[in-house]
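Hey L., structure's done. Input below.
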Amino acid sequence: MKRITYVVIIVALLATVLPSRAYASVSQVRLVVDGNELFGLDSPPIILNNRVMVPARAVFERVGGRVEWNYLHRQITVHYGSDILVMTVGQTQAVLNGRGIAMEVPPVILNDRTLIPLRFPAEAFGFDVAWDHVGRAAILHAPWEQPPGSPAHEHTIDFVNQPSVGEYSGGAQDVSTGPIEAVPHPGTNIISLLSPQETGADAYAIIASSPITDVNHFMLPDNRLVVDIYNAISSLSGPFVAAGPVGEVRSSQFSRTPNITRIVFDLLGPVEYSVSLSYDRRTLTVAFTVNTISAVTATSNTYSDTLRIQGDFQPSVRLSSSGFPDYVLVYIDNARMTAPSGDMPGGVYGSRFTTGQGTNGVAYVRIDIRNAWPAISIAHGTDFVTLTLHHGLAGVRYDFAARELRISRDTVNMDLAQVRYQEEYLLNRYTFTLPAGASGLGLGTLYVGDGFVNNVNITRDTAGDTIVVFETDRVMAFRIYETSTEYVIRGYLPREIYDFIVVIDPGHGGRQPGTSHHGVVEKDLVLTISHMVMEHLNPNTNIRAYMTRHTDVTVANSWRASFANQIGADLYVSVHANAANNRPTVSGIETWYMNHSRESVLGFSSREFARIMQYRKISATGAIDRGLRTTPDFIVLRDTHMPAVLLEVGFVSNREEAARLATASHQRLLARAIYDGIVEAFGVFTPPR
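Output:
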């Protein structure tokens, strides 16, 4: 393991706050690194149940590290030097350079701050850790090597926004004959990466101009195979051909101190693989073992049919309803089909299955459907997959390519004008209430799992109306229309259908009330104003507005930013109230912002947005103009990926201003000013689509 310079501390962007009563002992401590005490942290290090816990983001950024957050898997990937550490919120199992390693206690969230146990990551990366009982200080001494935050240290691979591998979760196995021995050689250049089509095998070939010194490879928990080539400069340029079980191949000059070329294979699912180096050490081969499907068997009972697909290891399957209503196709990636076809004895839904081999290493099973179109559940075993065709849905299919639920008009006859639609985007739940004429659909759940829609539940209410509920993995929007043969409910990402998207963020909430003076509580005031802003925005058909909270609930600041980023918002407005403790005469309005380099490609900056919003608020209210303020410390400004502002609507610590803020008329003035500012901003800013 390569030694590094500073302690690794992770950040969890999405987690729930642990109740403080779960901890019997909490006290503050000091943190000293190489003789220098760290001051000014947004949350101090503490002792929590006899463990030194340190604040994640604040300390980590102070010592120059880099972390990546996997939204779907709640995993934090930490890069330091040539080492990679993966930790999961709430779990004691971590992964260091592809190998499992146990922690005594997991990362936690306390008072909206991520805390990790100090000793584990420090010692894992070669630190000496000591405890000064008298001075109540955790003391760390770094290894001798150059810190990874130095200018020469480069990271060009971004794992944060890589696509999810869907329902797959680990299971890839290394079948290499053994580790690659390190042999000293002068530096080399990586000059070519050949695909399986070019090598003529189920393998990629990485070609170097001279012998390779050393290679390290490891599998991350979400099926990303990472191959690091040491003492190597990359001359590669993508894109690279992805084939078989590989969904994407990426390369970068991961580090220049030392020189490390990194190649990442995003796998579609569990697969056996091996990494080997040629005798002359100039060709590195990454091979993927094809899964032989040796048996496909069918069983039935009164209510369902089950198909078992047996392989050398767990098959990676995908479903297609392109053959509706006659057949279902089961695609098996990176597989060789040797099993014969057969009948489905006594099948309730299926009559026969037909096996075959498609192109690009994809095998398939076709299931012929008798009458009613079934729902399909999938279960995974060590070396098999079972598909169960079940319950009473009829005339319904899901088109994966188009993200559409298709309902046959032979099954349902209804008037679309009578359909009611309810959108609960904060719960990722979208409900269509169909009139009584839709009862022919039956009842049950259609399992989708395409990375957008998790499942579709079809139930009935007491009035006899049919309820269709989409449970999604992210914020979406749905529309219903009809053709001559079908009713179609289609799912969209917000940016696919809206020209302008804004997120309104009422600050604080729940257990975080914000400031409170003269009977005015910040969390309540800003929620009221935000609802008034939404009343102006909702009738505006050109602008789609979302809120981070609708009620008095606790919301983590990191979640607010990630919510806006996931939606793909064009503007972000966080609403707050101000206070000046011990200075009751201070009053007025100010607007905070933080410019980002990425805004240069938009042609519109957070500062420009802040100027517009400040002018509108002052013009509407006549309040004292406290101007624009900038800071890197507000999470909702730092972590959002669009022009963003934080609005301070006044000082509740000032008795006269608090009295004005408490009136509905003044709140309406502010709400209208915020709305007018958003409209003005979209008048000069055309978001990219």
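The chain has ten helices and 52 strands. The longest strand covers residues 246-256.

-- N.
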